[in-house]
Amino acid sequence: MRHSLRFQIILWGLLPVLILVISFSLTGVQSHRRSMRALVAQRNTLLGQTLAHEIAHQVTMYRTSVQALAELWPLETAGVSPQTFLSPGLMLVYLTPEGSIQLLGHVSPSEEVAARWVRAVADSEQATVFDPQPALVWQQPLSDGGALVAGMPISTLQLDEWLDPVDISPYAALAIVSEGRLIYTSGNVTDEIRPLLTGRGTDSAYTVSLAPIAGTPWEVVIVEPWEPLTAPFFRLDRWLPFVVAGAIFFSGLALLYGIHTLVRPLHTLAQQARGVGRGEFDVVNTPVRGVREVEEVWLALRQMAEQVRDYQDALKQYIGRLTHMQEEERGRLARELHDGLVQDLVALDHRVQRLQRTLAADEALKEQLEDVRREIGTLITELRRTCQALRPLYLEELGLVSALEVIARDAGALFTVEGTPRRLDADTELALYRMVQEALNNVKRHAQASRVEVVVSFTPSALHIRVRDDGVGFHVPSRLSDFTAAGHFGLLSMTERAHLIGAHLLIRSAPQAGTTVEITLPLPTPGSGNPQPVRRTAAPRHLAGGKTGQ
């Protein structure tokens, strides 16, 4: 299926636009994703800070109750019970100045746990104990040198009752972390998220928000995947590079398709058009495949080439017939001049000669008759030269090389023959003769040359004739029609004669650089037994004043 040029233009126009749109979309999607991630991180950070503030507030309340109890120590003297000041779930251990442990209150840890708490706060004011359950432990110094060791299990905060991460996002995971260990988790805690909660992993698909809890070694960590919160369209950005690559790939295919169906066919059409311009009409017989418009142009070019070839064949026949009739008319005129006027002038010269002998005694009249005879002789010479120009007898009798030598010698040109001379058919020799004759006439009329040479070279495959002068030169027209516009009708005649016999005519010239006319005629390959090539040079008959006698 051959697509049209309109389809190609639309395709080439839409694909770059599509690539630009996809590129802008990709930029917008990436910007949206960055904004969404920042928004999720900001929201979770605010939430984590809020939770951390609430937990710190509760821890502060517990610490305050322990401090109030320490100020009343010893309790027996103050007459108060520890349960009066202790918040529910808070456990106390009394560390005596001697280092022994006493359990206080109705709810107390076991002696083993109490000993573990005491060891945990031996070197610091507070610590986190993970066994049997995570608990915040701190000590409060007493006036008797002892200390109260308070333990607040994480369950005391009752986080599950007032914290519901599902209301935040079904994908979020919340944890309270101490020393890189989880002491409380809630929400969507998966194996993939757990390392992020403890700070032992990173993943760009998740946002991690941290909020330290004041007064404790704890911090609130919220981890949430941000991609599920984006619109489904914006989740396709990972495919956009493949879409762009696909668009670029198809753009490349479209470009190659355009080169194959448009650029190369147009280049072929241009070559065929140039071939038609050179007269090589068979080049259009090779089909040109491409878009529909290109094939239509090729069909039109082939039709035009056929019409031009038919026209040129008809014109060639017409010009050939016209040239033949012209040569016949020249021959007839030359015969009439030679057989009629020239003979009459010869007879008149004889009569004047007899009259001159009759009037030998009258010297004055005899001198006048001698002048008449000289004028008659001049007329006879000019008429014979004109007859020779109209009907070259040397060409008919002696052949092309001898005839060219005669007109070259008459023009004052150096004549050279290279290779083995061969006779050609009469029409071809006459056309070549007329072309060289026209070239020499142009030198005589326009060139103002001091040196002219004619070189005739025979090779096994071609005949080369070169007429070169060192005259003033001229601008050579680039087209055949420019010959007539510039007034060079002789050059046009030479071109037409070369076309008639299948020869190639080349004219090189430039102002003040002389002129060279080259004629190349392909020849059939000669048979065996040809004579060896020769080189013959004939000097010009005359040179007048350093100029050719033209």
Q: What do these coordinates show?
A:
By secondary structure, the protein is an alpha+beta fold. Helices cover 52% and strands 18% of the residues. The chain is built from 14 helices and 17 strands. The chain has helices at 5-71, 75-78, 82-85, 111-120, 159-162, 194-197, 240-277, 292-358, 363-390, 393-398, 400-410, 426-447, 480-485, 489-501; strands spanning 91-95, 101-104, 126-129, 135-141, 147-153, 173-178, 181-187, 206-212, 218-225, 414-419, 452-458, 462-469, 504-509, 515-522, 534-538, 543-544, 547-548. The strands form four sheets. The chain has a six-stranded mixed sheet, covered by helices on one side. Strands 2-1-5-4-3 form a five-stranded antiparallel sheet, sandwiched between helices. It has a four-stranded antiparallel sheet with strand order 7-6-9-8, with helices on one face. β6 and β7 (181-187) form a beta hairpin. The protein is rod-shaped and about 200 Å long.
Summary tags:
550 residues, alpha+beta, six-stranded mixed sheet, five-stranded antiparallel sheet, 52% helix
Q: Would you spell out the secondary-structure blueprint of this structure?
A:
Elements lengths: L4 H67 L3 H4 L3 H4 L5 E5 L5 E4 L6 H10 L5 E4 L5 E7 L5 E7 L5 H4 L10 E6 L2 E7 L6 H4 L8 E7 L5 E8 L14 H38 L14 H67 L4 H28 L2 H6 L1 H11 L3 E6 L6 H22 L4 E7 L3 E8 L10 H6 L3 H13 L2 E6 L5 E8 L11 E5 L4 E2 L2 E2 L2
Parallel strand pairs: 10-11
Antiparallel strand pairs: 1-2, 1-5, 3-4, 4-5, 6-7, 6-9, 8-9, 10-15, 11-12, 12-14, 13-14, 16-17
Helix pairs in contact: 1-7, 7-8, 8-9, 11-12, 12-14
